[in-house]
Write a structure and sequence with these properties.
Strand content: 15-25%
Structural class: alpha/beta
CATH topology of the largest domain: Rossmann fold
Number of strands: 16
Largest sheet: 8 strands, mixed
Order of helices and strands: EHEEEEEHEHEHHEHEEHEHEHEHEHEHHH
Number of domains: 2
CATH architecture of the largest domain: 3-Layer(aba) Sandwich
Distance between the termini: 9 Å
CATH superfamily of the largest domain: Glycogen Phosphorylase B
Number of helices: 14
Length: about 350
């Protein structure tokens, strides 16, 4: 099967769960014998226009203009005219202009289109704006797809609530449970004798890292906990100014380092206002690390099996939930590991996605 994967950004040039998902899916489908090309946008003129890496081909086209942080590329539009040479087009996230262009190509072309929903709302724009988008251009983009992939049943219901007519397939996100495991070396970057709390994600408003930082003042003094912040972004200076001595900023770490980082932690905090099914949650569970996250309707039922959820922005409740999770860490760690192994295996994600793409031919 010849797959054209359309992704605004790609790992490792841009770190993050979504970009790594695109990379790992392309790598593993190529390993299964499929011919995979990833079409992406770049603002780095020094990167090659075409590159072979990890078994798949990368085609980069330069950014033409950026609107509200969304890069639009005329080169991507031109390349999509060749979609007839591929068996299927698989675009990632309706939030990006490249996926809108792929939908436009499907409207006037014959090549089947799949779209993976990595989360309905942007981390970088107000929710009211994306409500408007989802009822107009976003809905139209979804409706051009021959299938839409969602991570959970709840997310499928949310997409349907905007009037989307396309078939929706629920394929859970997954994690490599052989890499992310409680057994193995721990990172010496997280050097603390008592409770270690972890935040992993981009330092942008949608991830609400300020809640994790402010939560530390709500923990009992006797707990002797330290927060380690993994990630970078425009809020870093602001967060460092508000943080106390009990917070350490590690910056962006490589994906290869992350299994050892998780193993050194006692709890993960994810206060985001919007997510799909975050890879960070699954990585923590697979590593035997319980999670405290914001109470999002499409992820709460998963998180609460091996952690706790808290109303969005409720810093006091975050502190109390983290204290409870730490006191029950061993029991929750075992539950999280079992959940990841039983229900969120990455190879199952690859197999189900590939089978559904083949069914479109």
């Amino acid at each position: 099967m010849r797959i054209l994967r359309v992704a605004q950004k790609l790992y490792p040039e841009v770190p993050g769960g979504g970009t790594y998902h695109v990379h790992a899916m392309s790598r593993d489908q190529a390993a299964r014998g499929h011919d995979v090309t990833v079409l992406t946008v770049t603002d780095d003129p020094d990167r090659p226009k075409r590159e072979r890496r990890d078994g798949y081909t990368i085609v980069r086209r330069p950014r033409t203009v950026s609107l509200l942080g969304n890069d639009l590329s005329a080169g991507v539009a031109r390349f999509l005219r060749t979609a007839a040479e591929f068996d299927v087009v698989h675009a990632h996230s309706h939030l990006y202009a490249s996926t809108n262009l792929a939908a436009l190509g499907r409207r006037f072309g014959e090549t089947p289109l799949a779209i993976t929903n990595h989360g309905l709302y942007s981390q970088n724009a107000p929710e009211w704006l994306f409500d408007l988008y989802l009822r107009t251009a976003g809905r139209w983009t979804f409706d051009q797809a021959d299938v839409v992939f969602c991570y959970t049943d709840e997310d499928r219901s949310r997409v349907w609530s905007f009037g989307v007519d396309s078939p929706i397939e629920v394929v859970a996100n997954g994690v490599d449970t052989d890499r992310f495991t409680p057994d193995g070396p721990t990172s010496d970057r997280l050097d603390h004798d008592e409770s270690v709390i972890l935040f992993v994600g981009r330092l942008v408003d949608g991830k609400r890292p300020q809640d994790a930082v402010q939560m530390m003042s709500q923990l009992p003094r006797g707990l002797n906990a330290r927060l380690y912040v993994v990630g970078d972004g425009p809020m870093r200076a602001e967060l460092m100014a508000m943080a106390g001595d009990e917070v350490t900023f590690l910056g962006q770490l490589s994906y290869d380092e992350m299994p050892a980082v998780y193993r050194a932690a006692d709890a993960l905090v994810l206060p985001s206002r919007a997510e799909g099914l975050p890879r960070t949650i699954l990585e923590a569970f697979a590593s035997g690390v319980p999670v405290v996250s914001s109470r999002l309707e499409h992820t709460a039922s998963i998180v609460e099996q091996a952690g706790e959820t808290v109303p969005l922005g409720d810093v006091v409740s975050y502190g109390a939930a983290v204290e409870r999770v730490l006191s029950n860490r061993e029991r929750l760690a075992s539950r999280g590991r079992a959940l990841a192994v039983d229900s969120f295996q990455w190879q199952d994600t690859v197999a189900a996605t590939t089978a559904r793409l083949q069914s479109l031919l």
